[in-house]
Design goal:
The chain has 69 residues and is an alpha+beta fold. Helix content is 36%, strand content 33%. It is built from 1 helix and 5 strands. It has a 3-stranded antiparallel beta sheet, with no helix packed on it. The longest helix has 25 residues. The protein starts with a strand and ends with a helix. The mean pLDDT is 95.
Length: 69
């Protein structure tokens, strides 16, 4: 789950696993696997960074739970 900002300034959370592609047209358009399109303020690179950071947090969480077992 990553936090993004609509063009009107309102923030919301999307499930990063549902992102099919991110395009800069020049606005950043996120296309979800259900073909829904979302225009956000963040750049494509920002979206990629947020997804990577989210996935790292998940991996760290899994690694910590394995270490404590």
């Amino acid at each position: 789950m990553i936090k993004v900002t609509r063009m009107n300034g309102k923030s919301f959370i999307i499930n990063s696993d549902l992102i099919e592609k991110v395009e800069e047209t020049p606005d950043t358009v996120i296309t979800l696997t259900n073909d829904k399109k979302i225009v956000v303020k963040e750049s494509g690179a920002d979206i990629v960074d947020k997804v990577i950071e989210y996935k790292r947090k998940i991996q760290r969480s899994i690694a910590c739970s394995v270490e404590t077992e």
